[in-house]
Every structure is written in structure tokens, then in C-alpha cells.
Design a protein that fits this description.
CATH superfamily: Class II aldolase/adducin N-terminal domain
Oligomer: single chain
Helix content: 25-40%
CATH class: Alpha Beta
Structural class: alpha+beta
Distance between the termini: 39 Å
Order of helices and strands: HEEEHEHEHEEHH
Radius of gyration: 17 Å
CATH architecture: 3-Layer(aba) Sandwich
Amino acid sequence: MENLDQRNQIIEYSLRLNSSNLSPLRSGNISLRGKEGNIEGYLITPSGKKYETLKPEDIVFMGLNEDEKNDSTNKPSSEWRFHRDIYTNKKEAHAIVHAHSPHATAVSSHGKPIPPFHYMIALAGGDDIKCAEYATFGSEELSKNVIKALENRIACLMSNHGQVAFGKNLEDAFELAQEIENICHQYTIALKLGQPKILSFEEMKKVLDKAKNYKKG
């Protein structure tokens, strides 16, 4: 079987979606950029399977060319389209985590970006966290909205849906998704106290410069 290590890694992090409560039961999905033969594509969790039942052969390979046929007996996640489009539009993306994490989903239901109430907002790549406009799950419209919200970003919310984050590997993408959930949790607490103070554009520019070396310190 091709890509066995990658398939096992996807299963490992899929189980973490449940154990960390980042995405309960069958919700959310995970993918990794990869190849099968000469075909450029990605491996993605299948549709409708509980994560604790996943086996390597259940993970689905999809070509980046939408006309590539999928020979797997399993259907890919219904959200395969925005995974494909992220890999196509973001050459630096090698792993994607999409989660219905509780606080990110709650904040996303307001359909608004998260302003810089905290400097850690910069981890998503900019001075706010964008929220993709709502569209039906799995649709081309949703994928277009996600790509727009990810402009100059590596994570975003998805209105009335959840969040998506990408990275150079699954560890980074998963950690970023956890950070986004934590930021959303803090934001919901802040809003209970009233409107939080928002950091200035100038301050966020300083923070963004520092954030480039955040993991190197």
C-alpha cells in the first residue's frame, strides 16, 4: 500500500480530534499532501466513518486534478473540495485540519472576523482571523469562500460551521487549530465582559514581525 506512513499519521491525528475534543465523533476532517505514482494529490479522511474504526486502507487518495478518478471503495470526506483548493492555491500547505471545535464554531455563527483583542491572533497570519461566508458544506461556493478568507492567512473560521487551519505538516496544522480554538474561547469570555480593547494596527504589525520567529525561540 502506498503512503502507509502518511495514512497512519492521518489516523493518529484523527483520533486526536476526538480525544482533545477539537472535533467530536465524525465531525471535521484531516488531509496530507501526497503522491500516488505520478499523480500529485492528497490523502484525506473518508466520509462518515468513526475515527476509532479507521484503517490505513480507509484513507482516500484524491488527485489535485478534479478529473482524476478515485479508485478507493470509500468516499472521501464531503469537504474534499476545499482541501483540494487549499493545496492548489497554497503551495506552502502540506497538511490541513478542519474542525467543528466548540468555541470556534460558536464564534463563527456570528459570521464576523475576530479582531486583534489579543496578540496571538497573529498566529493565523494577519491582524485578524477572517470568517469565510456561509455556504452549504461540500459545495464549490464554500470552497471559494474559504480560499478568500485564507488570503494572506493560514487559518480562518467558517461561518456557522467551524474552522480550518493548514501547516507544513500535521503537527503544525493540528497545533494551529488548537490555538484558534483557544483564541475563540478567550474571545467568548472577553465578550461576556463587554467589548474588549482592540490592539492598534501599528502594534499588530510589530507582533506579526515577531511572530515570524515565534517557534524559533
